[in-house]
Design brief:
- The complex is a heterodimer of chains A (about 300) and B (about 240).
- A six-stranded mixed β-sheet of chain A has the order 5-6-7-3-8-9. Chain A has a four-stranded antiparallel β-sheet with strand order 11-12-10-13, covered by helices on one side.
- Chain A has about 300 residues and is of the alpha/beta class.
- Chain A starts with a strand and ends in an 8-residue tail after the last helix.
- Chain A has two domains: about 210 residues, 3-Layer(aba) Sandwich (Rossmann fold), CATH 3.40.50.300; about 60 residues, Alpha-Beta Plaits (2-Layer Sandwich), CATH 3.30.70.
- The relative contact order of chain B is 0.15.
- Chain B is mostly helical and about 240 residues long.
- Chain B has one domain.
- The longest helix of chain B is centred in the middle third of the chain and has 37 residues.
- Chain B is globular and about 60 Å long.
- Classes of the chains: A alpha/beta (about 300), B mainly alpha (about 240).
């Protein structure tokens, strides 16, 4: 995507966005609801026209691809099935239009574990089954790249786990995976890199640990002598300790490493029952990056 | 293009809309033919027999609705996105839908003509009514079948252009029953070129009140309308966000 911009009447949905997804990697495309993720992905797929800027898949705009579904498979947000058509027939329509053999329909149905429900009408499908049917459609052409817009929406925890394994597997097979989500936790264990947008603008890009490294998490320590330990820590340059909300002598220490807190306690002969530093939670980073607000609209 | 048309035909076949419309068309025609045969004892007049055998002409109106519902239904159900992901070229996508509805309409036209032939001809013979010459009979069936096919095609191009099923169906009805008569009242020379005029030309249901075009020309004009609407739909679709 290069300098991609989309304006809907007065609303600037996507604002000068540029990024790239690499083969064999899972790129998480994150942002709150209304940040412009879906609009960006639909521009990539030639369904929405950019106001300015350009998108390309495999070096060419989507609309100029020959047999596009063999190049990139897509899972879109929102309704995309005729409720009265069966799942199998939906895939057969796509396969026929793309000139793919009927056996491929059976293969992808098995792959998403819908082979037992293929002859049911889509209106009888749960949200999770619809998502899997959508994934099956994306896989039909055995494409080198996958674009998944909020694929975890409507999935139960089991389904989300299945999706994670699935996405990792696709990347292991060398595919490029671009997956959007507004729920960071769903994607944290799945993505290699992330692009974070807010109100249509890029706010962060990079590997997950790089993103979280910028923000220091506090150290937590539990001691029966919490007050004395707090005084000892506060006495040091740049360190501040304050009692935690939980009972049992917890202190939250900022500006010190685990080593500093442990050594200070030892020097003062104070017992320590627990000492740890949580990984900076992705959610808090996410909130900080996106201004902690839903853009709305 | 062949595989796109095959996919569009598969779309038609795999929902109930097509079968319901085909069934209704056959049932309506069956009802009209049977009632006419029961009510009208004599049926010895050439015009009466001709009018009975022309009943199939209403099939075109139903296939017009079929085309509209099928093409606009893609937008209603969101399947247009997967259609355009496979076939990003809008003109090809719209053309395939039009051709598929033409073929679907043709099938319905053949079913209707078959129903009329199977019921009316033996019944009329049994009544000792004057049958039309074979050539004339076949000609009526040909007209009705052709109209059913072309109706489906025009419906598909309208549906792809308007995108809203209800608006498109209402639009067709307004066009036929409001716009056409007004146009004719204003400029009577356009009568043969209105949808109603072309319908009369194709189905032989000419009541003598207007001049009609030869059937082939009428079919070409109708196909021309379909092409213009289809191209407009393709151009707009490529400029519109889906």
């Amino acid at each position: 995507m290069r300098d991609l911009t989309k304006r809907f009447k007065t609303n600037l949905a996507v604002d000068g966005l540029s990024f790239k997804a690499e083969p064999g990697r899972v790129l998480g495309f994150l942002g709150p609801n209304g940040a412009g993720k879906t609009t960006t992905l639909r521009m990539l797929l030639g369904l929405t026209l950019p106001t300015s800027g350009s998108t390309s898949v495999d070096g060419r705009p989507y609309r100029q691809l020959t047999d596009p579904i063999t190049v990139v498979g897509a899972v879109l947000e929102g309704p995309q099935f005729h409720p009265g058509r069966t799942g199998r027939n939906h895939l057969r329509v796509v396969a026929t239009a793309a000139g793919l053999p009927r056996s491929r329909v059976e293969e992808v149905l098995r792959l998403v574990e819908l082979d037992g429900a293929g002859d049911k009408r889509v209106k009888a499908y749960s949200l999770g089954m619809r998502q899997r049917l959508s994934l099956a459609g994306a896989l039909l052409g055995d494409p080198q790249a996958l674009v998944l817009d909020e694929p975890a929406n409507g999935l139960d925890p089991q389904g989300i786990r299945w999706l994670r394994d699935f996405v990792r597997g696709q990347a292991r097979d060398g595919r490029t995976v671009l997956v959007s989500s507004h729920v960071l936790a769903e994607m944290a264990q799945t993505v290699d890199e992330v692009v974070v947008i807010s109100r249509g603008k890029l706010v962060a890009q990079g590997a997950l640990d790089e993103l979280t490294a910028g923000v220091e998490a506090p150290v937590w320590v539990r001691s029966p002598e919490a007050d004395r330990l707090r005084a000892a820590l506060d006495a040091q340059e740049g360190v501040s300790a304050e009692p935690g909300e939980a009972e049992g002598g917890w202190l939250m220490v900022r500006g010190a490493t685990l080593e500093v807190v442990g050594t200070t306690a030892a020097e003062h002969g104070l017992p320590v029952f627990e000492l740890y530093r949580p990984r900076q939670s992705l959610e808090s980073v996410f909130f900080e990056l996106t201004g902690g607000t839903e853009a709305g609209g | 293009m062949t595989r796109l048309v095959a996919a569009e035909l598969l779309k038609l076949r795999t929902t109930r809309t097509f079968w319901a419309l085909a069934g209704s068309a056959a049932a309506i025609v069956l009802l009209i033919v049977v009632l006419s045969l029961i009510i009208d004892d004599a049926l010895d007049d050439h015009d009466e027999v001709e009018s009975l055998l022309s009943t199939g002409g209403i099939g075109g109106l139903l296939t017009l609705v079929l085309g509209v519902v099928a093409a606009a239904g893609e937008y209603r159900h969101g399947t247009i996105a997967s259609t355009l992901l496979v076939t990003p070229n809008r003109l090809r996508a719209v053309s395939a839908a039009i051709v598929a509805c033409l073929l679907g309409g043709l099938a319905i036209g053949l079913i209707i003509s078959g129903v009329i032939a199977a019921i009316a001809i033996p019944w009329l013979s049994a009544k000792d009514a004057d049958l039309l010459p074979l050539g004339e009979t076949l000609d009526l069936f040909l007209g009705a079948t052709m109209f059913a096919a072309l109706g489906g095609a025009l419906g598909a191009s309208l549906g792809a252009l308007i995108r809203n099923q209800v608006a498109a169906v209402v639009g067709v009805l307004v066009l036929i029953f409001v716009v056409d008569p007004i146009l004719v009242a204003l400029v009577d020379t356009v009568a043969p070129y209105t949808l109603s005029g072309l319908t009369s030309s194709m189905t032989g249901g000419d009541d003598g009140s207007i001049d009609t075009l030869p059937r082939g020309i009428a079919a070409l004009v109708w196909a021309g309308y379909t092409a213009v609407l289809g191209v407009a739909a393709a151009v707009l679709t490529s400029r519109r966000d889906i």
